[in-house]
Specification:
Elements lengths: L2 E6 L9 E7 L1 H12 L8 H7 L13 H16 L5
Antiparallel strand pairs: 1-2
């Protein structure tokens, strides 16, 4: 079953990325659809989604996931910097 997690990070406000939405099945499809409608970058990483889906909504990601999420954000930054969609 498809799962999705949406993260938000405000460098001026947040100490770490925050889980803003998560779900599986139809909820996951809706999260992805909304991201596509707003042209937000999407990165497929099933293992990371599995770990992030255990974090409560509106909570910061745990410190042990910082490196993995930073790598995803770096990937997204590089893609968007080049004007491409991941």
């Amino acid at each position: 079953m498809k799962k999705a997690v949406a993260l938000k990070y405000n460098v001026n406000k947040d100490r770490a990325p925050v889980v803003k939405a998560k779900g599986k099945g139809d909820v996951a499809k809706n999260i992805i659809k909304i991201a596509e409608e707003y042209n937000l970058p999407i990165k497929k990483d099933e293992d990371l989604v599995e770990l992030l889906s255990k974090v409560e909504i509106d909570r910061e990601i745990p410190e042990n996931l910082y490196k993995a999420v930073a790598e995803v954000f770096g990937f997204i930054y590089n893609i968007t910097k080049q004007g491409k969609k991941p």
